[in-house]
Amino acid sequence: MPRVSLNRPDLKLDPDDPPGFRAAMWRFGESLGAERVGTTLYEVPPGEAVCPYHFENSEEEWLLVLDGNPTLREPDGEHRLEPMDVAFFPPGAGGAHQVRNDTAQTVRVLMWGENLYPATTIYPDSHKIGIWTRAGEDGRLYRLGTELDYYDGESNQR
Q1: Which of 64, 50, 63 is nearest to 21 (CA)?
Q2: How do beta strands 24-27 and 61-67 pair?
Q3: pLDDT in tens, 19-58
Q4: Can you give the C-alpha Rg of the chain in angstroms?
Q5: pTM of the predicted model, to two decimals?
Q6: How far is CA 73 from CA 35, 51, 130, in A?
Q7: In the chain, domain spans
């Protein structure tokens, strides 16, 4: 049976992440053969965040604090978490969240959730929607705000 150790993570930084969002991560679910649930270990330095404030439209996500005291931003405000705290983020706006490190020590969190494709993610602060069609592919981001009629631009002419 495949296994990994969270004590020896293969953490990687994405060089394209801007300041404020530079958290090292290790996505190890696939290496264990997982297909339906993605799992990522994040190591978040002081002043950084895992990602922008967002919510998934179809997927459930979970958070387990391993080390440190991250700040969890949710629709009802911000909360300081402690090691072994668990948070659940349901699909939709009620599950919006962001995990930040507002402390002077590195924070470690484990996040996992469903892998459902196509997937859409809303970023309320920047009024964007992200669309992912399959695992392992970069998504596309679009600005929200242009609502169209179902038949806009359509014709039954051949």
Answers
A1: 50
A2: unpaired
A3: 999 999 999 988 898 989 999 999 999 999 999 999 999 9
A4: 17
A5: 0.91
A6: 28, 11, 20
A7: 24-115
End-to-end CA distance of the chain: 56
Measure the CA angle with vertex 40, ends 60 and 132; round to 5°: 60
Helix (H, G, I), strand (E, B) or coil at 101: coil
**At which residue do the structure tokens 């998504």 appear?**
139
Q: What pLDDT does 69 receive?
A: 98
pLDDT in tens, 48-81: 999 999 999 999 999 999 999 999 999 999 999 9
Structure tokens given for 114? 């469903």
Q: Residue 43, exposed/middle/buried by CB under 10 A (0-12, 13-18, 19+)? A: buried
- In the chain, DSSP finds a helix count (H) and a strand count (E) of 0, 12
Label residues 121-146 b or e (16+ Cβ within 10 Å = b).
Answer: bbbeeeebbbebeeeeeeeeeeeeee
Architecture of domain 24-115: Sandwich (2.60)
Give me 102's structure tokens.
Answer: 């507002």
Q: Which two tokens stand for residue 18?
A: 């801007």
- pLDDT tens for residues 75-87? 999 999 999 999 9
What is the rounded CA–CA span in Å between residue 49 and residue 72?
10
Residues 6+ apart with CB under 8 A from 46: 101, 102, 103, 104, 105, 106
